[in-house]
Amino acid sequence: NLIQEITDKDLQPYKELEVLLMNNNDIDSMSQNAFQSLTNLEELDLSYNKLTNMLPTWFGHLQSLKRLNLLGNQYTSLGESSLFSALSSLKELKIGNRNFEAFHRHDFDGVLSLDNLYLNISNLRQYANGTLKTIKSIRHVSITTNIPLLPDIITDLSLSAIVLEIRNMSFRQHGDVESFIALTDTTVKVLMYRECLLTDNSAARLIEIIHTYKNVTDFDLLDCTLEGTGHGAPFLKDENSSLTTVVIKNLYIPNFYLFSDLSFVYKIVRKIKSVTCVDSKVFLMPCNFSRSFKMMEYLDLSGNLLTDLLLGSTSCFYDGFGAWPLLKSLNVSRNRLLSLQNVAQTLAHVPSLTTIDLSQNSFGGSTPSSCIWPVNLKSLNISNCQIRQISDCIPVTLEHLDVSFNNLEEFVLSLPNLKVLYISENRLTKLPADAHLPLLNLLIFRENRLIDFFQSDLKFFPNLIGLDGRKNSYFCSCQFVDFVKKNHKLLIGWPQDYICDSPTSVRDNQIDKANLPLLMCHKTLVVTLTCIILILGITFILALCYYFHIVWYVKMTCAWLKAKRRPLKVLDREIC
């Protein structure tokens, strides 16, 4: 829209309004009492307008306001007095723009706690120490600012924030990250970099600092860029670091093919329990690096460039084993793995492994007749792997199996411990009654080619408590509709996602609302009743004829008609 001004009367009729979104307009002027009538307002968005000044009177009557967005305007500060002191219910606050220059000591007076604080202050020139310290508790802080003022800001947030997110900043030099020393003693649990740039020098110094942390447990790099080849040389002391979780997503490394073996960080990873490194062009984790993760329980390397051979090197298969001694869950989906048998053999010597995700690789065709898997494996995901036929390569120890999004036409495995089976979006025309699944609790059978099912099919799954059969091509016969209605408590998504595909008379109707013709459901009864009614009707007509002498009257009528026509014929001959 192109709203430019808000007057006292514009919003008066909307006293019950709870959400007001006026973002992306041209508002440059608002009267002091513009929002006075909106005492029930909970969300106000004034972002990306042309406001040059902030007035506390705008928000003086908004005690119910929970979310306020002031991003992208043209104000340079938050005014001469506390802007938010009347907002006692405020939980989410977004402020800042390219013109914002100064924070004053009183700016956040009256704000005691927030769930989310978003600060876009990339051109900040002045920051009064203690400005953000007045906020006692902040669940998530997101900051974009310039590096010289970052130490003061982080110091003020170090004893109030839980999640500290640094956005869209560049750390090129060794000293650019010195401000994070303030988190050595802190309430912050998660340190997150999003859309930031690091170099070998700044990354090395950041690793040194993180290694000294006593309270930060999570370190995240999201959509960041690392300019370098990993040849930084951090000096790591024997510290008892609190870091247990590392998340790296979509890390762009221009020279990733020249990246080092990261031997300088072996010491820091010993106590890390969870590592996620996805969509970052990882093609190898050196064996010695894998062995350094002494306490790691979860590893996600999905969306990378691992091949069968390189996964073997990563797991120390060719170097005497010993990788990830406590690893329980491994995700290598969306890589370049080609042989299920080779992958199974590669991971068989990871002793604690219970969960493997191999989805969205290209195993293709049929699985081999036998495979060696980790002895404690309980969960396996091989969905979307172009598998046409599945064999005894699947381990019998499984309790959870996902083979969805393949090209399976049958499923006849014997898995005596299996409790959950995902087999959606294949080409199956019937439930897997030929398989041996005595403990199966949950069967997800969506979007196959299933026409119907009956008690004779379900009896093979005595412990089944949930069946998801949505979006199949059901033939709604009378017997099937009646059976499903009686057993619908077993069905997940009932009734809205169970639709008849045929016969034509009920196509696209929900099964529970399918009104089939009487003749279709009770053909024998209808034919029998029709014959009986026809016989009775004929008998009744004959009885009436006999009772009312209908036959005699018919004969007399015929004789009379013949007698009436005879004189006319004689007269015609005489005229001729």
Automatic annotation (TrEMBL):
It is a single-pass membrane protein. Keywords: Glycoprotein, Leucine-rich repeat, Membrane, Receptor, Repeat, Signal, Transmembrane, Transmembrane helix. The chain crosses the membrane at residues 525-554. One of its GO terms (biological process) is toll-like receptor signaling pathway. Its main location: membrane. It comes from the Eukaryota. SUPFAM superfamilies: L domain-like. SMART domains: LRR_BAC, LRR_TYP. The lineage of its organism: Eukaryota, Metazoa, Chordata, Craniata, Vertebrata. It is found in: Membrane. PANTHER family: TOLL-LIKE RECEPTOR (PTHR24365), TOLL-LIKE RECEPTOR 2 (PTHR24365:SF17). One of its GO terms (molecular function) is triacyl lipopeptide binding. This is Toll-like receptor 2. The gene is TLR2. InterPro entries: Leu-rich_rpt (IPR001611), Leu-rich_rpt_typical-subtyp (IPR003591), LRR_dom_sf (IPR032675). One of its GO terms (cellular component) is plasma membrane.
